[in-house]
Each structure stands twice: as structure tokens, then as C-alpha cells.
# Entry
Amino acid sequence: MEAVHLAPTAPPAPASASPDVGSDDDDARYTRPETPFALASTDDVNMLSLNWMCERADAGLPLPRRQDLPAEAFADVAKLRAEHAALPAHIAAAVLPMASVSYCWLKPEHPDGEGEQLRHIVETLEKHAKEWREFFPDMGVFWDWCSIHQKDP
# Structure
């Protein structure tokens, strides 16, 4: 289940350029760093703070669904965007302070009721932290259970 890759990204778009996420005019939207930042800045998606996830995993607690999470569970996307923009271009082109988790839900009512997958994912991301921690003190993590609203039990 360990597949963490920091893929190179295209150079950041100029500050005046706004990503047109729905446009078909240019495949660069799939590699331009501004696109995930723009998507993560909507009310539709919230990125978990990896630091908060680590605390939760260390405490042996499972993750609540998005609408039950406290505000401190979420990464500050504006701060991550600013930290990324402040990087030298060659580094900004190689690293983005975001990750997306894909995994098998263990039960329909809760994908990871015992927090086992959380602990494994945190362990895996932390093993690779040396690749990005010097640039970002936190990372935004897309985890469907926590990043998008879930239906009531």
C-alpha cells in the first residue's frame, strides 16, 4: 500500500492567471500547481492537516467524517499556497504541499473505524517527510471521508 510519489509539476502560473478548472483548452491544468490550490480553496473540499492526522494517529483515534471535524483538523490552504509561492522556481516545480489518499473502505458506515489505515498512512507519509518538511511545516491531505461531506449514518 506504499505508493508515495512527488511528481514534478509545471512552473507556477503567474499570480494574475486564474485557473480555469473546467476548460479543455490546455492540458497544463493537470500539472499546474494553482489548480489543486484552487480546488482545495472551495467549500466543496477541505484538506486535512497532516500534523493533526499525526496527533490523531498517535492517540489511537479514528478519523471522524468531515462535518464532525474541528476546524483545527484542516490544513490552512492559503498558508500552504503562500509557502509554495515563496519557494525558488526549481523547488516549486518539484514539490507541492498536498497529498491524496486512496484506500479501500473497511465498512460502509466508517471506512476506518479503528484508525488502522490512518496509522499506516501517517507512517508512510512521515517516512517521506524529509522530502518536503524543510519547505512546509504541514501538508494538506485529501482523504475522502474527511475532505468531502458524508451522508448521515
